[in-house]
Amino acid sequence: MVLALILGVLHLWGGAGPARANVTVLVPEGATLTRAAQELEKAGAIGSARQFVLLSKFLGGSGAIKAGEYRIPARLSQSDILKLMQGGRTLQRFVTIPEGTPSIIVYETLMKAPQLGGAVQVPAEGSVLPDSYSYNRGDTRQAVLARMQKAMNDYLAKAWAKRKPGIAVKTPQEALILASIVEKETGKPQERRMVAAVYSNRLKQGMRLDADPTIIYPITRGKPLGRRILQSEVRAKNDYNTYAMTGLPIGPIANPGRASIDAVLDPAPSNALYFVADGTGGHVFADTLEQHNANVQKWYAIRRARGEM
After folding, report:
1. Long-range contacts, 233-237 (Cβ 8 Å, 24+)
2. What's the pLDDT tens digit per position in 200-239?
3. Is the pLDDT of residue 173 over 90?
4. pTM over 0.85
């Protein structure tokens, strides 16, 4: 009789739970085991909150439960549910910021992220490190943004400390600005150091950078232009357009990723001063204007063959 009772209790504790599908349960900060059990019963993860509390106290060990949002798999036993909450294995949500994302898009991404609270302002351009950031239900957007910005500050400081001697940029902020241009100029990872070399060489020689993304940024704040650049925009004088001034823009034009920051702080050993598209999504580089003009003609021929000109 006693053995049958023990086996029955163990089955209640370790046997399959009643949930027929995965359920999500939120355990508030400071919640007691009883409150957590009530939330589990309400969600259908367990049959009885009172039973769960009693069995937890006798069979579940002394570990405290942790607050957070939990995804409870279908049929998960009461024993495993308690282990899940004692281990704090909460449901992780992610917000992803791709490399080269402008801050206006960072803002829109955060505002659309589900289960985040509060509002944020558009962050300073270049202040966010592109990456995927986890968060829990009920976290604030400001807290997530603060982590993104701390990640950028930490990485930039670490990368700057390892910079190669003789580079064109003089401060971490200048490195960030140039990295944002490199980020927008090429989608091929293997080209980043060469693009960085071109712009570094131009800076050292006092040449204009002539970077198309710097024309677009003051018009759209980094969003796609959606049309060809106008000649009036090429000539426009402002704090960003590197066709109308020498040196770097006043600030970053996007949030550059780690690889572009690294490329600026360790550019390829090259004398190249020019580059143009090669028709494959990449670029061809040249040391002299004569070589560059020949490469431009090849690019025009490709575009004419495609019916683009």
Report:
1. none
2. 999 999 999 999 999 999 999 999 999 999 999 999 999 9
3. yes
4. no
d(CA 237, CA 230): 14
CB atoms within 10 A of CB 209: 21
In single-letter form, the type of residue at position 262 comes to: D
CB 275 within 8 A of CB 286: yes
Nearest 5°: the CA angle 117, 122, 128 is: 90
* Mean pLDDT within 84-106: 91
Hey, is 253 helix, strand or coil?
coil
Q: What is the rounded CA–CA span in Å between residue 129 and residue 123?
A: 12
Percent of the chain, pLDDT > 70? 96
Q: Which two tokens stand for residue 85?
A: 């909450």
Alpha-carbon gap, residue 255 to 177, rounded angstroms: 9
pLDDT digits over 43-74, tens only? 999 988 999 998 888 887 778 888 888 888 89
Q: Report the first-to-last Cα separation within the chain, whole angstroms.
A: 90
Question: How far is 69 from 248, CA to CA, in rounded Å?
Answer: 46
Tally the residues of the chain: 309
Token pair in block for residue 126: 């270049």
What one-letter code names the amino acid at 278? D
Q: For tokens 């190669």, name the residue.
A: 164
Span 178-187, average pLDDT: 94
- Confidence band, pLDDT 50/70/90 cuts, at residue 132: very high
What is the C-alpha separation between 286 and 228, in angstroms, rounded?
25
Whether 106 and 97 have beta carbons less than 8 Å apart is answered as yes
Cα 162 to chain center, whole Å? 23
Average pLDDT of the chain, as a whole number: 92
State the DSSP H helix or E strand holding residue 114, giving kind and residue range, or none if neither. Answer: none
Which amino acid, residue 152? M
Residue 296's CB: how many other CB atoms inside 10 A?
15
- For residue 141, give both structure tokens: 């957007």
